[in-house]
């Protein structure tokens, strides 16, 4: 892959507090960071936003990040996970359609899926809405990257190309560079917002 190829990585940060049992410490929003990174590891664009902890607005928030960046040179979108901010489910198809870019979701731990967790935490219409979004998403596939294992889902790009893209943007370790930098940026943004409150 050419070193100047760019991807947008999106990651989140929010502080959970085990004492309240609902995944948050009174915070209702999670900080999202979008980072444009070239395949040669150079970051050349940042954008920040929020989504609701426990909500259903993360796909809209990611679309908003991409639209505000307005970068025609971005070829791929990476998202850190499929369920952000306490079961705020990412609709990969909707994001790919809205941004006209392939999207790859990357997770870093083995999982039996979200069905049990969703059924434990939600009921009625809230459960059905999340299940419907979750079930529309493509299956996860295991991928060896360097000396680590990640799990990917892809929309708007075939499996072989998705694997190549993830590896090309992961020069070391198992976390693609756009997601590594986005996670750092989201944490810093979240810390700053907490200090300002």
From TrEMBL:
InterPro entries, sorted: Endo_dU
Pfam families, alphabetized: Endo_dU
UniProt family annotation: Belongs to the UPF0215 family.
Protein name: UPF0215 protein SAMN05421858_2489
């Amino acid at each position: 892959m050419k070193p100047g190829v760019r991807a947008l990585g999106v990651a989140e940060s929010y502080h959970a507090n085990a004492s309240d049992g609902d995944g948050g410490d009174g915070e209702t929003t999670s900080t999202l960071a979008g980072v444009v990174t070239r395949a040669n590891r150079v970051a050349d664009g940042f954008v920040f936003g929020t989504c609701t902890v426990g909500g259903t607005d993360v796909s809209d928030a990611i679309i908003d990040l991409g639209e505000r960046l307005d970068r025609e040179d971005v070829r791929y979108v990476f998202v850190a996970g499929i369920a952000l901010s306490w079961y705020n489910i990412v609709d990969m198809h909707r994001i790919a359609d809205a941004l006209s870019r392939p999207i790859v979701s990357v997770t870093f731990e083995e999982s039996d899926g979200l069905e049990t967790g969703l059924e434990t935490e939600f009921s009625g219409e809230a459960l059905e809405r999340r299940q419907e979004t979750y079930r529309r998403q493509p299956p996860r596939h295991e991928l060896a990257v360097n000396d680590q294992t990640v799990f990917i889902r892809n929309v708007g790009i075939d499996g072989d190309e998705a694997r190549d893209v993830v590896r090309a943007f992961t020069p070391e370790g198992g976390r693609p560079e756009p997601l590594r930098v986005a996670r750092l940026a989201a944490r810093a943004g979240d810390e700053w917002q907490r200090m300002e409150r």
